[in-house]
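Re: [ENG-882] Designed sequences occasionally contain unexpected residues at chain ends

Forwarding the minimal case from QA. Structure tokens:
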């Protein structure tokens, strides 16, 4: 059995997710791309459903997305799930150095981009998560724009983040960048990022972030 066949045998899976989540959206995009069947289970974060004992038994960190495979194996952390799903797909470059670059961008996403860009958007979409002070908002806007500046430096020179093809690094960063304006980020100043978003859209499945998977 090759590993794609092994993976297919672990589906249908169940994805625990929250529709507006970019972290969940990364996994939804990969599952659609690989045409792997799954059941979508909404976890209402506004109602605290990620902190119930039932949910914490699956992921003690109390966060979606969580993918539960048909044999009961539990996968957590959006980028680690992306890696597991796509390791031997056309969304993963082959060279050792290219894979290092993929992980480098995915680490950047989790450390510099998501904690700023995603947080302001989440607070704008879901005021129930709590309000931020003006100083906190200003700081997140500044640090998020710094992360976008870093992406722009690369994307004004090349079509995708790693080599010349769409990879899971692009998927990881597309998820919150394409909706960054919802958190107040100004994408007009980033022509390289805007052109990259359009290129990503061409290679990604036609599934919007706010669209419940079929
Ligand atoms: N590093 C995690 C972050 C996941 C995350 O922050 N999930 C948020 C929604 S986007 C969540 O579940 N929050 C619920 C909570 O903290 O109670 C990943 O990439 O999967």
């Amino acid at each position: 059995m090759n590993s794609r066949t092994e993976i297919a045998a672990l589906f249908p899976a169940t994805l625990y997710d929250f529709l507006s989540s970019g972290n969940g959206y990364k996994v939804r995009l990969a599952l659609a791309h690989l045409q792997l069947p799954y059941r979508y289970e909404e976890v209402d974060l506004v109602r605290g459903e990620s902190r119930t004992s039932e949910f914490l038994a699956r992921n003690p960190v109390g966060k979606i997305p969580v993918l539960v495979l048909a044999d009961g194996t539990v996968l957590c952390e959006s980028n680690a799930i992306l890696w597991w799903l796509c390791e031997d797909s056309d969304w993963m470059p082959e060279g050792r150095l290219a894979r290092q670059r993929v992980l480098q961008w995915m680490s950047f996403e989790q450390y510099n981009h998501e904690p700023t860009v995603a947080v302001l958007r989440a607070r704008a979409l879901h005021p129930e998560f709590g309000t931020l002070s003006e100083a906190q908002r200003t700081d997140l806007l500044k640090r998020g724009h710094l992360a976008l500046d870093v992406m722009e430096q690369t994307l004004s020179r090349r079509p995708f983040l790693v080599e010349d093809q769409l990879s899971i690094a692009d998927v990881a960063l597309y998820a919150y960048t394409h909706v960054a304006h919802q958190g107040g980020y100004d994408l007009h100043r980033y022509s390289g990022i805007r052109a990259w978003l359009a290129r990503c859209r061409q290679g990604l499945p036609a599934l919007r972030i706010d669209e419940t998977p079929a």
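QA comment: On inspection the terminal residues look reasonable. The chain has a mean pLDDT of 97. Proposing we downgrade this to a documentation issue.
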